[in-house]
Structure formats: structure tokens, C-alpha cells
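Meet our chain:
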Amino acid sequence: MPAGFAVVPEPDPAAGAFWPAVAALRGAQLAACADYVGIDMYPDVFGGRIEQPDLDRAAGEMLRTLRRRALPLAGIPDSTPVRVCENGWPTGPGRREHRQAEVLDTVLRAAHARRRELNITHWALFALRDADGAAWTSLTERGESRPRQSRRAGHPVRLNGGHSRPMVVTAGPDDAIWFSRGDGHIGRAGPGGAVTSVPALTPTWSSYGMCAGPDRTLWYTLLTPDRVGRISLDGGTEEFALPAGSMPSLITADPDGALWCTLNQADAIARITPAGDITTYPLPTAGAAPVGIHAGGEAVWFTEFGAGQLARIFPDGKIEEFPLPGRSGRPHAIAATADGGCWATLWAASSAVRYDRDGHLIQETSFAPGAEPHGIALAADQSVWVALEAGTLAHLTDPRPQ
């Protein structure tokens, strides 16, 4: 898996504290380990409104400053790619949709035009869920990320706090969109666009997995402190401890109201009752490293990122594993289908696969090399949405086996 970090633009990198600190932290060792360096591409960070004729120049200067002035301070060579890990321009009073389209088009073209000069390889999105017939995706990146927005049907929703780092998005029981954040909070975007947040009980750690649970609650995971949490609509929160070092990742609710989450570092699945009682189920395959999980009508499907398998667990704890044709595909996200099967993204194979209820591969959709499919969700019409880290959303409008 490529590993890197992302930053916000700085007009004078040498005058700030960040880049000299990066250089002092690990020096050549860090430079050798970084597979990429990401950058936020919001016109707002340029400093005040920029008229259209000057936008290309300003965007190019931002990218050139990162490559020519910032990265050399940390000893990061030109051969290390730059990724545009976020982009956006919010609409609102005095900020109309046509201007949004102009800005996004100009900034994207500015990066594309300089891709060879500055070794720019990606324009990235992150996670995806579907709500009210509209596709939602968070704009974030891996590593030291500082996103500020989630996006609904192409219209950004500005979040409170420039370092909120939105992660996983889910439809709540209150017609709002809820999302995990990397700053120790859980975010909420109401139907009218108002954005609020609730702190996790362990607010110094990033929340990651997110889902709606029984009794009009929301549930989340905390990766490092090994906890799951529950939020009521009045803002009350409660957390429950999981095995130490297990790294709970994504979480889902089954039709009976139980919560299930992947324990990535424990090679196990956890079942949590609404009262907080926890049962763990070890996986048959060592090094499975489960990540994605989604409950269907009869079983809970999940991905085994490390083992190259899809799997499901039944309410009685029975586990079935289904090896992928290429075990190096790195399955990441998964979505259960109405017929008992599932769709899953294969991050390293740049594809999405569909399995039937008997565990047979019945369809594979390939994307361009390097697309890096990440999040996946089914719409109400059973069409499939996929978030590609290369910078696009894929919509499979006729996802029937061919």
C-alpha cells in the first residue's frame, strides 16, 4: 500500500515550522519512505478571492512552491509524486454554481497542465455512501491530512474546523448525514446544510468507522484506543472497550440491531449488542486484516485485505471465506446486495467485483490502472457507486451480470 502524507499550502515554507520539523524528524529515512506527498487544492487557501484570469497562475504557483521550495527542505526528491488529495469550492451567498464549475475546472486543468513538470500523479477522493438518492463522498487523504469538506451531489458542504478530516459518511435516522472525523469529533450535516459536531468520549483520537444503529443512534469506531462508541440524537455518547491492539475499522448494523465491526490487527470480527456486550470471532485465516464490512439480510459480509479474500459471518458465528482469483487484489470496501451476495472494491487490482450468495464471482468491472477504488455503496435502485482515489466517482448504472 502506498504511504504518504498531505499538507496545506504555505506561501513561504522555510518561514514556517512544519517543513524544517519534518526535515529534522527523520531526514533521509522519511524521504525514502514517503511514496507520495499530498496537497489540498482549495482556492480559498490562496488568500482572498482570485479572479478567473489569475486562478491558473495562482494554482500553478501553489503546486510549484510545494515541489520547488517545500519538499527540498525535507530532502524529498523530484521522483516522489505529488497527489492532489482534496479539492473543492463551496457555494453559498454570492458563490454560485457556475462559478464553482469554473473554479474547479481551472484548478484541475492547472494541475493537469503541470503534471509532468512537477510529477503530479493523482487527483483524489476518499470514502462514499449513499443517502436520499444522492451520492455523498468525503474529501480527505491518507497520512497527515487536513480536509475541510464533504460533498453532496456535487455541492460542497463546508465543515466547522479546518482540520476536521472527514472520513466515513452514513445516512442518519434524522434525515441528516453523519460522518466520522479525524479530529476526535463526529460530524452532522443537516437537511438544510447546517453543520454541527459531537465530541467522542475519547476526543484525542480519530474516529473512523461510522453507521446508523438501532433506536435512532449512531455508532463509530476509534482505531487506536480500540473502542466503539454510540451517539444518541440528543448528543449523549457512550463508549465500549475492545481487545487491546485490535484496531476496530469499519462498522455496520444488522437487521436485528446488533453491531459488527472488523478488528484489523486482531484478525477477528466483533459483535456488539446495543447494551455494549461484545463477542469476538477469530478468523480462520492468519493475517486476514479485515477492513470493510456490511450487513445483509442473512449474513454480514466483510473484506480480508491482507488475505485477498471476501468473507461472511452468520448470526451464530459461522464464518465462510471466498478467495479472490488474484489474492493480491487488496479488497477494501464491501456492500451487501439484496439477493444475498455482495460488491467489493479491489484496491490494488483497480476493479470492483460482485459475488453471488453462494460465494461465486459473477462479475468484475475494471477501472483504469492506478484508479485505486476505495469506497463502495449501493443506491436505492441497486446501482453501484465507487469512489476512486485517482479522483473520480464511478457509477455502475446497470450492475447486472453480463
Summary: The longest helix spans residues 52-70. Residues 126-133, 141-153 have pLDDT under 50 and may be disordered. The two ends are 31 Å apart (CA to CA).
